[in-house]
Amino acid sequence: MAAMGSLGVTAAPQPAVADEASDLRAKILQIPGVGKGSPTDADWQKVGELCLGATKASIKEGEFKGVELSFMGLNNQNLHNLLFRGFLKPWEAYTGAKINWIDLAQADYNPRLQQAIATGTVDFDLLEMGAPFEGDVCGKGLASEMPDWVKKQIDMDDLVSYLKPPVGTWDGKQYRVTIDGDTHNFNYRTDYFKDEALAKAWKEAGNTTEWAVPRTWQQVQAVTKFLKGKQVDGQDAYGYLDACKAWGGFGFYFLGSRATAYAKHPDDKAWLFDVDTMKPRINNPAWVRAIQDVLDALPSEPADQLNADPNTTGFQQFLGGTGSMCVWWGDIGSNAKTNDSSVIGDKCGFDILPGSDDVYNSKTGKWDKLASGPNFAPNLAYLGWGVYVMARVDKDEKKHKAAWSAAAHLGGKDLALWTAVYPSGFQCYRNSQHNIDEWVAAGYDKEFITNYLDSQFNSYNHPNGAIEPRIPGIFQYYSLAEDILAKIYAGQLKAQEGADQIAAAWEKLTDQIGREKQIKLYKASLGL
């Protein structure tokens, strides 16, 4: 991969540079080593130190002495900000700058950020943020435009296509240092679907299809209901794990991943709102079917599933051995064999999200069966985390350069590979991370990692991917939905009744923000 950069170049030193980069990548991937336990702060600091080359090439030692920066981000699963601390400690030691940290739980993130935006009291210089918030932050002039030297240092051309501009930009200006690529993928237990006793029971139950990993949501539902009351290796067996508890707006993605195959038609880029009116689609037959699926599956899921947020389903339940299917960001794959709490490292498989036998056509109001077979529509949920520098540093040249240097260090190409291989909260977001040999050299089984990376990159590159709109207030829409979904899942509202209430709340919010402005930005986010 690195050698490809030397094609067409006759200067002799280039291969040596490529070899040096390859050696660095191989070295950091052995820290601490796949299968050798969860990485520690000492490991994060070692990796951060080894990846300081680009900083040392552009910044003098001690150049930022006396500069203090404030960084706001997540502490979800004891990752995110905690890793940033480790990665940036060597950067602080070399540059002389000091970073103060604002750590937020995932459920608290949106309220805290919205408060800062609404009151105009931005009290941080660097911000970990997802692209959906760009309408709220960049659209209000709160972010600093990226300098050209940063673009070069982080090698933006290496980003996967769906994360390139307009993502990370606003009004044609670049603001974001991408550190993550996000898509929901399908995670399943391979041992369940190889179990001969389950295969026999499946057939005896009258099923005419083979006992196999589900490819559609209809099959997911059937498997989930079938597994109720059964056991695997002496443990209670469960099918799909729904995340029902509100999670600061982030939980809405998990209903979205049940809905995209029903709601995202290949002939229509939109799936959340009508593009010409911003009329919500959340209460159309596709979304109502997805909500009803949750209600129908819950009696077959673990007893307290109503109180399970996504952290519970992914980390406590699925990685801990409960359940056979769940949807999550790519964290499941990168944690399965490198997280001390995982018991499923050798029995975990991956795919793009399940499809659907039919897909709702919002233009005709009918369900279509595609000649090509089931409809697949990966949920490109959240468009990945990025690091943003706030405009409040622009008036101080030294602080401005320091903030962008810290952001560029976190967005480095080599550091990105490590964060994808080990538990970090971040997944692949660069084409250079799809080098199977590097992962195998790090200690991953070739079949496992090929399966995992295919689930990620086949989602990123899918022609019918469900693109998330970067419009102001998007998490306000999601949070409103979560509040009402909680009532639906608890049995207080019927699926259609609750969906209608969500649609009404969304309409009110759109009018408050400005319908014509939202229509314009929604179309732009979909490339229309």
Automatic annotation (TrEMBL):
Keyword Transport present in the record's keywords: the answer is yes
Give the protein's recorded name.
Sugar ABC transporter substrate-binding protein
Keyword Signal in annotation: yes
Family, according to the entry, reads as follows: Belongs to the bacterial solute-binding protein 1 family.
Organism the protein comes from: Labrys okinawensis
For this UniProt record, the keywords arranged alphabetically read as follows:
Signal, Transport
Q: Superkingdom of this entry's organism?
A: Bacteria
Read off the InterPro entries from this record: Bact_solute-bd_prot1
